[in-house]
Amino acid sequence: MNFRAYFKHMPTSMAAYAYAEKKLGKQLEKYSLKVLEAHVTFWIEHGVYRVNCHIVADGAIDLAVGAEDAVSMNAAIDALENKIEASLRKAKGKLRRHIMAPVIMDVTERGVDPAEAADAIDAGEILQQEKNRRRAGLHIVAAKA
Asked: Of 53, 70, 134, 136, which sits most exposed with the smallest number of CB within 10 A?
C-alpha cells in the first residue's frame, strides 16, 4: 500500500502519521481491499484540526472522504475512520449488487448454496469474475431488486 500523508499549515507529525496509517489500514484490511494508494491530508484552520483522505483500491473503488473537524488530531482521525468505514461498506455493497448476480448464478449452476457463496466471495474474486466476462465478450446485467 502506498500511504502518503501531507501536512498543511502545521508541522509534520509522525505520531499523527502513524495513528492514521494504523486506523485506516485496519479499515482497509477489514474489507479485504488491495489498496494501491491512500493519501491523507492534515491541516489546522482557525484552531480546528481537519483531515481529508483519498483512497484508490482494487481498480474499482475510488473514495474521496471529506474533511473532518475536531478539537484534536486523533479525534479528527477517528471521525475520518468512521466515515471511511461507511464509504467502504457502501462501495463494496455496490460491487456486490452490480456484479454478484452473475457470480451467484454461476455458483448456483455448480450446486453450491448461494447464501454460503456470497459470504465466501471477496472483492478480488468479484473483479476477477468481471474481467473474465469482459474477455469472453459477455455483458454483465445487474439483477433488479
From this structure: 136
